[in-house]
Specification:
Blueprint: E1 2-3, E2 9-10, E3 15-16, H1 17-20, E4 26-31, E5 34-37, E6 41-42, E7 47-52, H2 56-77, E8 82-83, E9 88-89, E10 92-98, H3 107-121, E11 124-129, H4 132-138, H5 143-152, H6 168-171, E12 177-182, E13 189-194, E14 210-219, E15 228-236, H7 240-256, H8 258-264, E16 268-269, E17 280-281, H9 283-302, E18 306-307, E19 313-315, H10 316-322, H11 324-327, E20 336-338, E21 341-342, E22 348-350, E23 353-357, H12 362-370, E24 381-390, E25 406-416, H13 421-438, E26 443-449, H14 460-476, E27 481-484, E28 494-500, E29 506-515, H15 517-521, E30 526-527, E31 533-534, E32 537-542, H16 547-557, E33 571-575, H17 581-593, E34 598-600, H18 607-616, E35 621-625, H19 627-632, E36 634-639, E37 644-649, H20 650-662
Parallel strand pairs: 18-24, 26-27, 33-34, 33-35
Antiparallel strand pairs: 1-2, 2-7, 3-6, 4-5, 4-7, 8-10, 9-10, 10-15, 11-12, 12-13, 14-15, 16-17, 19-23, 20-23, 21-22, 24-25, 25-32, 26-28, 28-29, 29-32, 30-31, 35-36, 36-37
Helix pairs in contact: 2-3, 8-16, 13-14
Length: 673
Amino acid sequence: MSAGSDDAIEVTETTTGFELFPDRTVVALRVNGELRDLATEVGPGDTVAPVAVSSKDGLDILRHSTAHVLAQAVQSINPEAKLGIGPPVTDGFYYDFDVATPFALEDLKAIEKAMDRIIRQGQRFVRRVVSDDEARRELAAEPYKLELIGLKGGSTDPDALPDDSGESVEVGGAELTIYENVDAKTGERYWQDLCRGPHVPSTRMIGNGYALTRVAAAYWRGSERNPQLQRIYGTAWPSKDELRAYQARVEEALKRDHRRLGSELDLFSFPDEIGSGLAVFHPKGGIIRREMENYSRRRHEDEGYDFVYSPHITKAHLFETSGHLGWYADGMFPPMHLDEARNEEGEVTRQGADYYLKPMNCPFHILIYRSRARSYRDLPLRLFEFGTVYRNEKSGVIHGLTRVRGLTMDDAHIFTSRERMKDELSRTLRFVLDLLRDYGLTDFYLELSTKDPEKYVGDDAIWEEATNTLAEVAAESGLDLVPDPGGAAFYGPKISVQARDAIGRTWQMSTVQLDFNLPERFELEYTAPDGSRQRPVMIHRALFGSIERFMGVLTEHYAGAFPVWLSPVQVMGVPVADEYADYLEGIVDRLRDGRVRAEVDRSDDRMQKKIRNHTKAKIPFQLIAGEEDRAAGTVSFRFRDGSQKNGVPVDEAVRRILESIETRAQVETAWLD
């Protein structure tokens, strides 16, 4: 055998993955580009690469194998349980079951014990190819498996089901296969399941790095028309230490959950009377949102953007022209039929029209561009709007502020010439990254989303030019670039800025899309220097993504302890006794003159309780004053982390506070000696 690229080798004699890669960290093979079990026999001409358990594919294989052990354990306890599907998901796995009695959290302990027995036995996962009839005969007692076999229909088309569907783990391959769990010594079969594979060689490889986490209800194949099944979630990692590290991250994420903090800090809520996925911002949350927006507006003004406004609804024809009704109708709310007129006899005298809540702002900005003749001297034309849009998100995916139905996008659309589009893209990406850094996000990489072959408009050559241009701009940024095949919108490829938060989670932030197609569909033009009529190029750019989502991300990034410039209350005066409240009021008045959000706590609570309350409310600065401070013209600073600086002259205190706001300081204690 001879070495190849990316750890691949070219096989020169018949062998197996076990012989090629005896390293215990290898869980599977990639044979000629396809994932296969380690037991797979390979021969001359095959190109083979190891799949490490720590890789994404390796973790998916480990987790899917653990899902099989979970299903085996459940059926060992309850033989009447019917099997759904058990795919790997981000950081874990799940398996769906049809059971007479729903699972309770206390059931998980007994199921884990049964799983431990299976893992210790070291059962082997053995792949067996079966025909449609064989699969139906062997799985006759499993109605949901039979339905999946029917979906596949014995097809040899590997794309009969999409690779990212849960069902694809069962029947997504080119052939139907059953995996048996067998005794490593005797070959006795303990259990089997319809599955595409691959799996780890032995259950022992799962080890003790797994845990069952929660139970839930889920409709079969995600449709409310189907039976409701019971779902068990779990997580699996290569080692116990990695499991514990993950559990610590989960615990920290729960502490930072923006939904909980939003309620505790009185920032926003989701009243049932309004509807799912529709938030209202309370006064404190409104301050944060206003500060976010105001700073963004100032930066956009400096960058040469023009501010525009557009309505929330429009006639259907606009979205027919843009293509949204053809490609995005499922994400739009149903139409409202308006403007129809009838006479006294009930006869229609004027035809009505369907109006839609807008899911996107771009068609409106296109109409602004088209409202008058444009010259090359007008370009680049940068239009910006905080535009509220509405998307008919399904109830199962709505999540706090990060997935809502009503969202305000900080939407910009830049119209430029083809000659200047790369420079404009580079400038836009720099602006995006600089502004995100101002809000405290600093760890980025980029994702390049390319054409979905089944969902796009326009010429292939145009798509190729647009994609190559974005790839060049991304490369010149110096950031890592990750491919996202098929992830583009129907009208053009895009770069997405992925940001890591304070605990290492990745969030998709800004998007920059290059679009040749909507200018074509709307017949946009400008007069070039030679007098000819040319088509502009359009750049779509959302910096926050949406105000709502960005605020949810920042809430979790800062764990609710926003930097001083964003904090709803920036300074709280805490008198040692009532007689020192007026002294603090004088200092607070000076701060308010500088537009600082400052208050004095004149409540009847004891001083220590006041300090605890305001620390819990995550107020950046508490100014404490007693007799010594009043006599010396000083205050004591108390910070959110519990540290304190005493005897600070009032003038210096005011200067320090104003400076921390003006510089958007991330840590309010940075100036402590």
